[in-house]
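Structure, all two chains, one model.
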Amino acid sequence: MSASGPSGDHLLRWRDRARRRGVTPTVWLVVPGALFMVVFFVYPVCYGVGLSFQGTQGWSSAYRDFFADRLVNNHGSRRSILITLELALAASVVNVVLAVPIAYRMRGRVRAKRALIAVVLVPMTLGTVFVASAMKEFLGPSGWLNRALLGIGAIEQPLPLVGNVTGVLLSLVFTGLPFAFLLMVGYTSGIDPGLDKAAAVCGARPAQRFWLVTFPLLLPGMTITFCLSFVLAFGVFPSATLVGNDAGPTRVLSKVAYTEYSYGHYPTASAAAVVMAVVQLAVLGLVLSARGLLHRGPTTGGKG
Amino acid sequence: MTDVAATSTGQAAPPPVGAARRPPGYTLTGAVTWGGLWVFVGGLLLAVASVLLASLTTQLADGWLPRGYTTRWYTQSWTTFGLGRLLVTTVEVGVAVVAVTLAVALPTAYVLARLTFPGRRLLLLLFLVPQVVPVMTYAVPLATLVYRLRLNDTLAGIVLVNLVPAIPFAVLVLLPFVEQVDPRIEQAARVCGATNRRVFVHILGPLLVPGLLAAGVLTLVRVVGQFELTFLVSGPDSQTLVVALYGAAVQAGELASQEINAMATVYMATTLTLLLVALRVVDPTAVAARDGRSSR
């Protein structure tokens, strides 16, 4: 490995300087992974962004077509932004709101905890098609739920739970809740139970203990869970197609992008995909910056 | 006042063991939480049961339960879809992706966890961004790229596109595991004259087995369920189970719904097996929380 001669001397000095900055030969281990990501992630994304500016009429025509609702099988591509946002935001809010109390109760000793966790995680394995089938069979007009509600006389007409936004939202919650729960279990069990006990010793009621002690500590975890649930719910289109009605009320952005792609309209497909990314990153940025405003300081007290 | 105290002590006195085990009080929020949890679990079980029943019915009934039961939908969908080949493809893709992912992600995670060098934050960003960008955003141009490389409708193409989200994900999963390994162990090995390769194979590898298992299992579960990417590059000769299932479900008119339900059940059985194996191998709460002390 040692080099000699004037050029080798130069090389040695250069290597020395690099080593002092922390570039040791071991750093080269990162090259395969980084190279792969550059070639197969960064390049495609840049290529897609470039493609979205190569519409048939001028650089912005793909975007103009998108926002003027001039795409294939058009059911309102502009409106699909709102639909996707609504669905993803509602699903992630519901997921976090449901996951927090369940995870909070799980942190202590609970009978059959492992079995309960396993059952709650089952929807992760079902797959969108199974969930869609389950929604249709169970919540459909002649499904068990509507039958039971009709039977006890709670409703007169079957509830329209499938083929609309409600159905898609339910299936998103169904598949997303386990994931949110799993994340929140991690955060709740990371909170020192001593803090809660200390507050109790000081005379705080359970509600006070939750809202003044535990909740602020959970907030960062809730933000992350919200963001990841949002990412999961935002990009998915099988459930919107199978449970909802993608010719209108539940036409999500990824479906718009896919339809354009399948017709070979690459500029407009890329434009739709770029709009998706911009909207999603904007929401994540807003949530994360709001988190910075809301809560500063240590998130775990005296946890070693 | 005394009355209440008397009754409460009277109730509490006989079974002190039971009173100690019971949580201090049943609160409204607790009742709502547990109620909600049981509603979720109940709905889940009923929904699964309804699909299972629907996959076994002879004909669509108008009552609570189907009129007759048969397993012919399973055999029928097995032959019409070539479920056996689909399963084989899915397993092949999953194993290949996991193997390549771990081989690439481990060195990367090691460098990112251990070394500080210029551009480290940029590299971290490179592995973080794929987690927050919608899959479609890179799936569409990536699929175009795969077509241009003439890899569409091949196993290699599917493995390639699935590696794109898998590698950064595995790197992020592995990072904390590498950070937990004491650097002095490696230093000791290096002092004793171990090369990079030997450090990886004989020191880090064994110490990182839990991390590698967690990353591998999570990657496998994600690859098996990965829809959008595989969907865009797969053709009739190279479908995974999810993609075939979606294709069948979309053209619902042409197939009996029992057949789709049977296929969905096979898919569920596959992933459920995976999950059970995963739960045996990695404790999800332990992975997420990384602390076993507070629960004990």
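Chain A has one domain: 53-294.
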